[in-house]
Amino acid sequence: MVRSVLLVDQKQSTAELVKTYLTADGYEVDHTPDPSKAVEYASRSQYGVVVTDLVMRGGMSGIDLYREIRSYDVQVRFVFMLVLSADVLRLMGSLERSDVIKKEPLSMNEVICKVRAAFTNSR
């Protein structure tokens, strides 16, 4: 089974770091900084997990991205990276099949563990 991850992060240095670690752990990773393009990618390919920032420029948040992709792919799991506390995300509503990583400072071990868990729990 191909373990495909869609990474959506507008900070290039963070995206490169996350992609490097996920690729080294055996995942196939596509990256785009543009949430609208992420919706396009997700409509054309099947991803097991979407790793995304919660707050993004350009009019679409991580929550908007989640809702858009989940409207046609109910199996995909989401891992949210955020600077805000996890409590803020919970206040925004319950997001099924998702997990949260506090971003600052970003722990690559936590990213890998959350993505592994998302793939394990998607079966």
Automatic annotation (TrEMBL):
Entry superkingdom: Archaea
GO molecular function: DNA binding
InterPro entries: Bact_response_regulator, CheY-like_superfamily, Sig_transdc_resp-reg_receiver
Gene3D superfamilies registered for this protein in UniProt: 3.40.50.2300
Residue ranges of every copy of the Response regulatory domain listed in the record: 4-119
Keyword set, alphabetical order: DNA-binding, Phosphoprotein
Segments forming a coiled coil: none
PROSITE patterns attached to this UniProt entry: RESPONSE_REGULATORY
GO aspect biological process, one term: phosphorelay signal transduction system
PANTHER family (UniProt xref): RESPONSE REGULATORY DOMAIN-CONTAINING PROTEIN, STRESS RESPONSE REGULATOR PROTEIN 1
Protein name as catalogued: Response regulator with CheY-like receiver domain and winged-helix DNA-binding domain
Organism expressing this protein natively: Candidatus Nitrososphaera evergladensis SR1
Taxon lineage: Archaea, Nitrososphaerota, Nitrososphaeria, Nitrososphaerales, Nitrososphaeraceae
